[in-house]
Design brief:
The complex is a heterodimer of chains A (about 300) and B (about 350). Chain A is mainly alpha-helical. Chain A is built from 13 helices and two strands; from the N terminus they run ααααβαβαααααααα. Chain A is globular, with a radius of gyration of 20 Å. By secondary structure, chain B is α/β, with parallel strands linked by helices. Chain B folds into two domains: about 130 residues, Rossmann fold (3-Layer(aba) Sandwich), CATH 3.40.50.2300; about 180 residues, Response regulator (Rossmann fold), CATH 3.40.50.2300. Helix content of chain B is about 40%, strand content about 20%. Chain B has eleven helices and 14 strands. In chain B, strands 2-1-3-4-5-11 form a six-stranded parallel β-sheet, with helices on both faces. Chain B has a six-stranded mixed β-sheet with strand order 7-6-8-9-10-12, with helices on both faces. A two-stranded antiparallel sheet of chain B has the order 13-14. Classes of the chains: A mainly alpha (about 300), B alpha/beta (about 350).
Chain lengths: ~300, ~350
């Protein structure tokens, strides 16, 4: 009995953390190249409606996820044109992108509001899924959950073990040096930004196709902002993003369980609701309190426009 | 000279009259919505009422959806009053102070605010006795549950939500004294992801009939996925969970809107406080799911008739709270004042009130 509750909590934690991980890792890559895109909420909304609409029309979940990815990528391409080619202010453009995406997705999604999709079955990995307590949460999840772990591995390898990753980080640290030794700074930033948008789109599609599964205006409900905050509090380190996302999901889920259990607690539920935010910030601030590591990991040129001289 | 001016003015007035078609311009009625209309939910029900109003009275209407409960609301309400709307319906609690403020400037416009508590010279109040429907769904839940554990996903601990929770458990216990209710607060009116998570949590803690007081359909869908039962709220949510959806407490604003606008047009409208339920036709249950047995349906029918006739009050005594204290002794009904100050759980709720 007790262990089954623990299993449900762990299971729900991983599901709740998954969209945050996908979106935050995408943003992390974009930010490592020096581009700060605050439009995650808008890109996720567009990804959510595109994913939902395409899955609904075609019946194919994978086309839906691809469509969500494309929608997010398209949004971030718009953003990139404004900030990288036209040298617009990144913060202002990102905020505009958020508002645009939330509004546009509501407009496009009007006719899909009454529709629902069938629930997507979990993929059980034989034997491993039968391990007590942790088997179900780790090895009987929906496909995109496994994808988030693969994405994590790929990004760690890319950023810290591959040459293109090194170049990307160099562009974020000092675009002028990278430019002077011949790297196409603007093109690299374009690619990184579009990658971030594509991941935000997948995160949105996860919400509308896998998680709830339904489409309603405003369904992203602030998760885009949480993802952006996670990247900062995780000091641009992928592993900390993972920890932060699960911590956030875990505390949220655990407080729901505590409320449902009828345990005698004299804590206002409003406080319990804010607990995931508090816990995530406190823990990430503590593990990131060393000023040197923060300085080491924060992309120096983050948010600054770069114009290559001739 | 002055005569010419007067003739000119008259001509202008006639022209304006001709332009609007009927000579007398059709009255316009404005609606302010807090959320998008969507396909189900609080605002959707108000919009159904608006459409009924248009059809039955021939007035034109206009609405602004997704208005935040802040200074923007004042701007929207003021705009409607300024352009000469006869009646402005502000349909969310947070519009209260803004509507009241604007009503003081535009004395000729009638303002009606839903779910608030402040009235003005030209501002009336309307609310619905949602708890009547909740009691009936509670009766069904008490009959349908096998685990005797019910679940409730709630937004904020305000009296309106507390009334729903307490009516639900009181109804359930009236037919099943062993029923208990678990409540989870999500502290948000609208977050489908979190609502679903809370629903799944309740279902994993043995609840087999759940309902919600939030704005999305996520709870009904979660129950459908898990093969359990759920009640909709605000609107009929059957299509989101054809098997799970037992019925829903729905709100019907149309008749009230029609009546109010007709009164305003006739000049007989006085700002008052209307709190309508089954009797006034403002609350009804959605069609019952086939899974509900005939004897339960019969029971509901009797209760509905009693509510319409005013023979039955869901909070008829004895009303006993969680700690065992008697709130209303046997033989009495809870007063409206008591209802509006409800901040405790009744017997049968196992969760604790967030305080």
């Amino acid at each position: 009995m007790e262990s089954s509750i623990l299993t449900s909590i762990l299971f729900a934690t991983i599901v709740a953390g998954t969209p945050l991980i996908i979106v935050a890792l995408g943003q992390l890559v974009a930010e490592k190249s020096g581009v700060l895109n605050l439009g995650a909420e808008g890109m996720m909304s567009m990804g959510a409606i595109a994913g939902f609409a395409i899955t609904f029309e075609t019946g194919s979940v994978w086309l839906g996820v691809l469509g969500g990815m494309a929608a997010g990528a398209l949004m971030s391409y718009l953003f990139a044109v404004v900030v990288l080619t036209l040298m617009g202010n990144q913060v202002a453009t990102g905020l505009a992108l958020s508002i645009l995406g939330v509004g546009l997705s509501a407009f496009i999604g009007k006719s899909y509001e009454s529709e629902i999709l069938p629930t997507i079955e979990a993929i059980r990995i034989p034997l491993l899924a039968d391990i007590p307590i942790i088997g179900e949460p780790l090895f009987a999840q929906q496909s995109l959950v496994y994808f988030s772990w693969a994405l994590f591995g790929a990004i760690v390898w890319f950023l810290y073990r591959s040459r293109p990753g090194l170049v990307l980080r160099a562009v974020g640290e000092s675009p002028s040096s990278a430019h002077s030794i011949g790297y196409p700074v603007i093109r690299i930033r374009y690619l990184a930004t579009i990658f971030g948008g594509a991941m935000a789109g997948i995160g949105g599609a996860f919400l509308s196709v896998f998680y709830t599964p339904l489409w309603v205006e405003g369904m992203v409900a602030g998760r885009g902002w949480i993802a952006i905050a996670l990247v900062v509090f995780a000091t641009w380190r992928p592993f900390r993003v993972l920890v932060g996302a699960y911590l956030f999901g875990g505390v949220m889920v655990a407080q729901l369980f505590v409320q449902g259990s009828g345990l005698e607690i004299n804590i206002p539920s409003q406080f319990l609701s804010s607990l995931p935010y508090l816990a995530t910030i406190i823990v990430l601030v503590i593990i990131s309190r060393d000023q040197n590591t923060v300085r080491l990991n924060a992309p120096v040129s983050l948010g600054q426009p770069y114009r290559p001289d001739a | 000279m002055t005569l010419k001016k007067i003739i000119n003015k008259l001509a202008l007035i006639a022209l304006l009259g001709a332009m609007t078609g009927t000579g007398m311009a059709a009255d316009n009625v404005g609606f302010v919505y807090v959320s998008p209309i969507g396909d189900a939910g609080w605002t959707y029900q108000h919009d159904l009422g608006r459409l009924q109003l248009e059809k039955e009275t021939g007035v034109t209407t206009s609405f602004v959806e997704n208005v935040p409960e802040g200074p923007d609301a004042e701007r929207v309400i003021r705009e409607m009053a300024k352009r000469g709307d006869k009646v402005v319906f502000a349909t969310s609690f947070g519009f209260m102070n803004y509507a009241l403020k604007v009503s003081k400037t535009f004395r000729k416009t009638a303002f009606v605010h839903a779910t608030g508590y402040k009235m003005g010279k030209n501002m009336g109040l309307v609310n619905a006795r949602f708890y009547e429907g909740r009691y009936l769904t509670g009766v069904i839940a008490g009959e349908m549950t096998k685990s005797n554990v019910l679940g409730y996903v709630a937004a904020f601990p305000i009296p309106e939500v507390m009334q729903g929770i307490n009516a639900f458990i009181k109804g359930a216990r009236s037919v099943n004294p062993k029923a208990e209710l678990r409540v989870i607060w999500v502290n948000s009116w609208f977050d489908p992801g979190k609502e679903r998570q809370a629903a799944l949590t309740l279902l994993s803690q043995e609840a087999d009939v759940i309902t919600h007081h939030t704005d999305s359909t996520a709870v009904v869908q979660a129950a459908e996925d898990q093969g359990k039962y759920a009640f909709g709220y605000h609107s009929d949510m059957a299509k989101y969970g054809p098997k799970a959806h037992l019925t829903a407490t729905t709100h019907l604003w149309g008749d009230y809107y029609v009546k109010t606008v007709k009164e305003v047009q006739a000049g007989t409208w006085k700002p008052g406080s209307v709190w309508g339920g089954y009797k006034e036709g403002m609350i009804a249950l959605a069609p019952l799911n086939e899974a509900i047995p005939a004897d339960v349906r019969a029971k509901i029918k009797v209760l509905e008739a009693d509510l319409v006739a005013g023979r039955f009050h869901p909070f008829a005594g004895p009303v006993i709270d969680q700690s065992g204290k008697t709130i209303v002794p046997a033989g009495q009904d809870m007063t409206d004042d008591q209802l509006n100050q409800m901040n405790y759980y009744l017997q049968g709720v196992v969760s604790k009130v967030p305080n």
